[in-house]
Amino acid sequence: MATSLTFIGGAGTVTGSKYLLADGGRRVLVDAGVFQGEKELRELNWRPFPVPPASIETILVTHAHTDHVGYLPALVRDGFAGEILATETTCELAAIVLRDAAFLAERDAEHAAERGYSKHTPPLPLFTTADAEQALRLFRVVDYDTDVDLDAGWAARWTRAGHILGSASIRVATPSASVLFSGDLGRAEHPVLRAREIPPGADVVLVESTYGDREHHEPSAKAHEPLADLIRRTARRGGSVLIPAFAVDRTEVVLQTLTTLLKDGRIPELPVFVNSPMALAALGVYRDARFAGELRPDLDATGFVDLPHLREVHTTEESIRLNDPKVPCVIISSSGMATGGRVLHHLEHLLPDSRNAVVLAGYQAEGTRGRALLEGAQHLKMHGRQVPVRAEILQDEEFSVHADCSELLDWLGALTPAPSQVFTVHGTATSASALAATASERLGLPARAAVLGETVDL
Ligand SMILES: [Zn+2]
């Protein structure tokens, strides 16, 4: 029996990661993410899954970001009943992420119903809280660096990827092939986490290509100086700084950076609000002593976030009050690409005032509001109306926790044995092709960009 691999998502785009392995009637899925960004992509979330979810035996998860786990509740609702395997901290974070995703999906459907701007009548959530809870019951913890037996001659192994807490590359061995899924790869060093490690090689390798066509700028001589300067400037003119941040990992890294800037006397003491229940819950996992071994050895696990004026915003009332901050402050809120969540209300209130500033702290996918801001949009559409953009916009690339082109090549080049085929995934068509071309040229590896929906025999 030959093993086949189908790219159900995360091919030709950065979101929706879903890779199906099949061999002798057995089906194993790696990651189950939702598509985000442009409307035509988001609509793919509503299509029937290409195989009956009940026919999938097991789902293996690389990490807890929504574009890798956010579709799990839909699969469970539609019949998947096997195990979902992930590292311990991924299980912890996935519980936070999936509950939040269900809550947002239900709330957005309600809002759309009230304002009448959905095409579904009545507007439906992609999945419900009950679906998310059911999915969470199927999670089972696996260890890093250990072969996990999947029966029938299949095995899988998780290796640290240094991208977010719990993140991993997964190597799957079937009776006739071996496939390595890079997952999202961190940079050589992560500001908070243990660094990524090199997994054992495989015949076929899927490597992410978020930044496959780019090199990160050399960090400024003084780390994050453009950000520090922006915070000083904005505070002087009486404005506030809004940082849309992915709730999981980016918020921790932003808080740790602010802690360092404040300790070094490079920014004034301002109130720092974290307005994202999900980010606060994730922060709890990062600071949990049980998981201290997953952090950088040179980091104080409990003290890496140490801001005297850190305010946690939990309730909706507190969140609404924050729309009109009386004194300059820093607000960190999700989602990171401004596709939804509480950050939208802050953008609505802060963008029209030129005293304020917005810091983009991560990758901004095509079609998202974050990308529009990055590209200098004069207006932003939110809740069905156009909001003028007058606030200052800064992109701080030093926050990136995705490997750039050279760092991806370093990872590929270190695999032993070298792969006989490389597919570039989790990138736009441009960055995926660029990484494939560079990998062929510089490493002599047969590489090409994966195509959404295609099945290849391995
Ligand atoms: Zn990720």
The appropriate CATH architecture of the largest domain is 4-Layer Sandwich
SS strand fraction: 15-25%
The hetero molecules present are: zinc ion
> How many discrete structural domains?
2
CATH superfamily of the largest domain: Ribonuclease Z/Hydroxyacylglutathione hydrolase-like
Please report the number of helical segments: 13
Uncertain stretches of 5 or more adjacent residues: none
C-alpha Rg (nearest Å): 21 Å
Secondary structure tally: strands: 22
- Mean of all residue-level pLDDT scores: 92
Largest sheet: 7 strands, mixed
Instruction: Using the coordinates shown, work out and report the CATH topology of the largest domain.
Output: Metallo-beta-lactamase, Chain A
Structural class label:
alpha/beta
Please bin the fraction of helical residues: 25-40%
Adjacency order of strands in the biggest sheet: 6-5-4-3-2-1-22
**Span between termini:** 10 Å
General form: globular
The top-level CATH class of the largest domain is Alpha Beta
Topology:
Elements lengths: L2 E7 L8 E6 L2 E5 L8 H4 L15 E3 L5 H4 L2 H6 L5 E5 H28 L13 H9 L1 E4 L5 E2 L5 E6 L7 E6 L4 E4 L22 E5 L16 H12 L4 E4 L5 H14 L8 E4 L1 H10 L23 E3 L3 H6 L8 E4 L9 H8 L6 E4 L8 H6 L4 E4 L2 E4 L3 E4 L9 H9 L7 E5 L3 H15 L3 E3 L5 E3 L1
The site of zinc ion (ZN) has 4 residues, from loops.
Can you put this structure into words, describing what you see?
The protein folds into two domains: 269 residues, Ribonuclease Z/Hydroxyacylglutathione hydrolase-like (Metallo-beta-lactamase, Chain A, 4-Layer Sandwich); 175 residues, 3-Layer(aba) Sandwich (Rossmann fold), CATH 3.40.50. Helices cover 29% and strands 21% of the residues. The protein has 13 helices and 22 strands. Helix 12 crosses helix 13. It binds zinc ion. Zinc ion binds next to loops. The site of zinc ion (ZN) has 4 residues, from loops.
